[in-house]
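Tokenise the fold.
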Amino acid sequence: MDCLFTACVKTKKTRHPRTAIMELRCVVQKYAWGKTGKSSLVAQLSQGNSTAPIVEDDPYAELWMGTHPSGPSVIKSSNEPLLNHLLNNVDSLGDGEKKKFGTDLPFLFKALSVAKALSIQAHPNKKHAEELFATRPDLYKDPNHKPEMVTAWLGPFEALCGFRPTADIKFFLQEIDELAAVVGKAACEALVKAESESEEALALRGCFSALMNSSEESIASALKQFELRIPSLSAEKKDALQCDLFTRIATDFPGDVGCWSVYFMNYVVLQEGESMFLGPNIPHAYIFGDCLECMACSDNVVRAGLTPKFKDIDTLCSMLDYQPGPVDRFRMQWSNVDEFCQTCSPPVPDFAMARLRLPASATVDKAYSLPVRSNASILLILQGQATSAETGGDLSFGQVLFLKAGQQLSLQVKGEQDVIVYQAFANV
């Protein structure tokens, strides 16, 4: 990874309070798709702020850093929920975020370790989220939207994201008779005949909705037929039809309609440090790897495949963005600030990300001071060890810190590893 890190947002000079920087203890979520035991980045990170031993057979899927009620962080020294602290110490938040979002953090910061595909899913926009929460609070737990940014960590991260260019989808429907059969002749022909962008989007909606609403029996039968036919295909044809990817997912989710999503959605491999942004109604599914996520503080997910959880097919098919196109439209660029710093600001006010890399190989005569932010932030130490005057001790892998608005933090490398830190904060 090139030299990384944080945004130097130009703000008015602020007095830097000398109050102690708070370390957080964060919640680990164990979902079936998570990596097991010590192979999981999440499990490894959990050791930085927990004394609980790693259970080798358990799937460590997500580490939640924030105030969401489904996994609230607590202040390590006092065991007080972070949200309670914010409510009782409103000066911890910046004026901009308080005006926009009230007395809570607007973002949720996560680390994920993915062993097998997550559900085919999308997140509602703000208005739709409020409607779903009002009418079905048992399924949709809060009224907030959930735009999110994902950044690959520790090697390639695989995902499906957004609908493919129409030409690609037409090719797969023409080459895979089993898929065309479950989509249906009328829907396939409508996509072939579509000429304008609006006609293509409407026809694509027809194809995807027909697929998702097919009977479980017809889906399972078509999947089995295609799986049995794959060995007879040439190596060139297998590659063109992405059979390795299809087979991996079908092995984990036999008979599941979500297996066919490979042929409707873009397949993307993010290299370490690369990011993409997923706005409302964009269909996606993570497939494999470790990543960091930052999102609006929400857990609203509409699912329709590759999951044992409830599949809300009608809601998903009605809300999706059916605009086809290449995956590059979702990629995000990081901006260099100095030799150690980068920042990335997605097109939402709820969150932005920053990252720091302090090289162990360089002679560091003095501590590096992180840019002082006008809003509260959460930092995750992802690699290395550092000393900090503000914490009065060492910081190392897995530790999570909360910085109030205007609070200073300086780091000096300790040891032979580069120090890598990611930071989440409101984008206002």
